[in-house]
Each structure stands twice: as C-alpha cells, then as structure tokens.
Amino acid sequence: TRMRVAVVGAGVSGLTATKCCLEEGLEPTCFEQSQDIGGVWRYTEHIEAGRPSLYPSVISNTSKEMSAFSDFPYPEDFPVFLPNAKFLDYLRRYAEHFGLREHIKCGTTVISIRKHPDFATTGQWDVVTEADGKQTSHVFDAVMVCSGNFSEPFLPLHCFPGIEKFQGQYFHSRQYKHPDMFQGKRVLVVGMGNSGVDIAVEASRVATKVTISTGRGAWLLSRVFDHGYPWDMVFNTRLRSLIRNSLPGPLSRALINYRVNQRFNHENYGLQPEKRYFLVPVLNDDLPSYIVTGRITIKPGVKEFKNNSVIFHNCPEEEPVDIVVFCTGYNVSFPFLEEADVKVENKYASLYKYVFPTHLQRPTLAVIGMIKTLGAMMPVTEMQARWVTRVLKGRKANTSSPVYQNIVRTGCVLFGLSFDEVLKTEWLAYMDELATFIGAKPRVLGLLFRDPWLALTIFFGPCTPYQYRLGGPGHWEGARQAILTQWDRTLKPTRTRVPTSSSSLCPSLLTVMGFLLLLTALIFGF
C-alpha cells in the first residue's frame, strides 16, 4: 500500500507539498480549513467575507520568474510583480494542471496531531479533523505541516507603557482590512516590516498624518532595480552569490550597504538601521517619495502612550494620535501539535534545515515554509517538499547523515528558526543545499562543455527555479527552454510600446560577459 501523508493547509506550501507527494507515489490528503485554496492570497475574498487580510498591498514582493514553481512557469502576459488576484489565479491553474483538487478537503480543520502508540516503530500519526461540526480520526504514515506563520499575532502590549490609558483605537496589523478606516485620522504604525510600510503607504492616501515608529530602522529595496529589471533577478544570481560568499563578511556587507544606499541615503530619511550590516530589507517602491513629500514621517521607538498622544524616545514633545497599528509580527505556533513534537522557545523552533524536528525518533513530521529568506518563498517551499517526500519515500536524503543523527541523539540544534538568523542564510545557498540532498543541483561546469549558452545563462543570469529541473529526480523536459526564455516572459508585459530600433529582449549582460570573466569565476568557484 502507498504511504498516506496528511498535508495541513492548502496555501502555497500545501499545494506544492501535495504535488510533490504525488510525484513520489505517495497518497496525500490535504486539509484546508477555509472553503478554497490559496491561503493568505485570497485577499479580495477575505475582504468580501469581512475577514482580516494579511497582505494590505496585495502585490508580490518577488518577480514572477523567480517565484514560479519550477515546472510551471507563469503565463507571459502576467505582470512582473503580481497582484493577489493574478497570484491566486496562478495557484488555481497549478492545482488544476497537476490534479490536486481531488486530494484537498476544504472546510476541514485539523484539531490535533498526536504520535500513534507504536510511533517508535511505524512513525505513524493520529490526526483528528473537524468538518461541519463533526470530528473524524485518521491514521497517517507522515504529516507535512504547511499552515504558515501568520496564525498567532505577536502583540507585546507590556512593552508600551501607558497603552492602557490610550483612548484611541489600536489593533494588530492582522486585523487591517481597508484604508478607508484611516480617513481623516492621525495614524501611528509601530514596526517597520513589509506589512508596516505597506499599511503606512496606503493610510497616507486618506489619513491626515501618518507616522512610522521604528527602533531599529530598516534597509529599503525597490522592486525595480538596476536598468529597470526586477530586484531579485539582479540580486540572486550565481555570480553575485559567489562573490558575496567569497569575500570576507564585513567587506561583503559593506559593499551591499553601499549599493543599497546608492538609491537614497537611508540616514537622511531616518531609515538607517541600528545594525549597519545588510540583514532585514523591506520591499517598497513608494516610501522614499512619501517621506520626501511629507506624507509619512519616520520616528524612533515608542517611549510612552498618553490619553490621545504618544511620546517617542529622544523626542520630548507629545504627538497626537487617533489610531495605532501594531506591526509587531507573529509568534511561531503549532496549536494542533503537542509542544514536545516541535519545540518552540523565544521564536526558535528545533528544526533540522528548518524542516525536520530534531528530536523525533522517526523523520515522519516535516514543517514546510517556516523560513524567511531574501528571495522568493515558493521555490523554497517546493524544494523543501521535494526533499521531504524523498525522505518519506526512503530515497536519497540527508536525515541518515551522521550530523543529523548526532542532533537527534544529543538534542543540539544545528539550525534554529529565527527570522533574523535565517536571513543570514542566502536564498541561493539554501536552495542549492537542499537540491544537493536530492540530486537536483545544476552542474554548471559540466553544462559548460555540453551546452555553453545554457551554462552562461545559469551562471550569470538570475537563478530561476527551473534550474532545479534540468536533471535528477523530477526532471522536466521544458526546463532548458524555460530558462532561455525567462527574460522574454519578464519583459513581455512591460514592452507594450516597442520602438522600431529596439534592442533584443535579452539583456546585454549575458552577451557582453567575456570568457575571461567566466574563466576567472570558474577558477574561484569550482
């Protein structure tokens, strides 16, 4: 009989986990508590139903080519950065194309997941679900948790003296629905992550005044990068990754900081991070112009709340406030699991390679998507799911390695789960590591002799997910063509007016690079 796998959640992670199970001949059952797939990307439908939204700007922060599933490119007429409706359309096409719908049970909530009595020998799990008020018990051979990290808001009100006296309105960003609620109000946004900046920008269009309070500051990136190309297609290349990882850490960080400050000096805009090395960037195209035009003001951390105002650190005067939005993030939580199965302390979880709990006797529980990297999440969750399903199938994996066995035996965690720490692991390096576990990492040097143009494109161009389908398990025949046409699909939606003297769609980067640079890179890289 085929191994039965429970997949919790039918968002991005759950869909690709279900698909990877089918690829490996496993039998997945995906439980989704809402009435349709898509998770947090069902923005418009959440609003219509009066439920909170988690993505106020509802525009993806990563480009379509970098965030595509590795064997399912976006249609070429889709915009470069996707509105939520297009993104949700893509997810539905993906589900239909690979026949995932029949394996998804919508309107079904996972109540509890507990070890089966004979877990030590079988690795099985008892799963209790609820649908239409009726609970059902199941036994599964493995569980893939794909429920995301936006379930439990983190709202440390004890860190804000005087909040109990504040007579205005305050809430966590998870409760934000629509900017109309800020009409004519004085708004304070506490925290400067992506959600905080997006909410502030939207609020400034209708509010009387908008202030962002940040104790740490943040580096700001624009979706539109060098020569108008998407930021991640410029930043996440094998050549740039090689350079960043080859240089001494301080020098590499200094170069990145210099590059980020070329667009605008962060210190002059009140954004300079307390820690000056490049670590936690925020993606937003509008904030600098909104600051320079006075629509948004940046202030230090909150010192104290008064009845109708706030006092900031190092700012003696009170500032009137009507509404406070706390963009303070989320706790890592798994309410349906026992605490002993996934240990979470101070926003850390004991997960090997951010996936497998390190203390279980059998690697039959995996957490997908609980990682934040400077790059697209969809390919990362897909690669995690590909690795997990290979492990479950008993094929080439890394959970039998001495390193992993030592972690299980001693309880010493090789990689904890903390968003700040995870960001120190490069997107491309992490993808390559997991791809190596399953034998899907592209061999650039070998390709150089067999298919030099493809090798050059892979090394100098963006590391699109299709690279991980060129060989190994899950090989896709269309991978080579998808790589060679990735710039065509990127530029097609924007080149709606092409002068007669237009240049080729393919950026000149690949054609200008000489073999001297290639050989130099190969010498140092291989």
From TrEMBL:
It comes from the Eukaryota. Keywords: Endoplasmic reticulum, FAD, Flavoprotein, Membrane, Monooxygenase, NADP, Oxidoreductase, Transmembrane, Transmembrane helix. Its EC number is 1.14.13.148, 1.14.13.8. GO terms for cellular component: endoplasmic reticulum membrane. One of its GO terms (molecular function) is N,N-dimethylaniline monooxygenase activity. Its cofactor is FAD. Its main location: endoplasmic reticulum. It is a single-pass membrane protein. Signal peptide: none annotated. It is an enzyme of class 1 (oxidoreductase). It is found in: Endoplasmic reticulum membrane. It catalyses: hypotaurine + NADH + O2 + H(+) = taurine + NAD(+) + H2O; hypotaurine + NADPH + O2 + H(+) = taurine + NADP(+) + H2O; N,N-dimethylaniline + NADPH + O2 + H(+) = N,N-dimethylaniline N-oxide + NADP(+) + H2O; trimethylamine + NADPH + O2 = trimethylamine N-oxide + NADP(+) + H2O. Belongs to the FMO family. This is Flavin-containing monooxygenase 1. It comes from Brachypteracias leptosomus. The lineage of its organism: Eukaryota, Metazoa, Chordata, Craniata, Vertebrata. The gene is Fmo1.
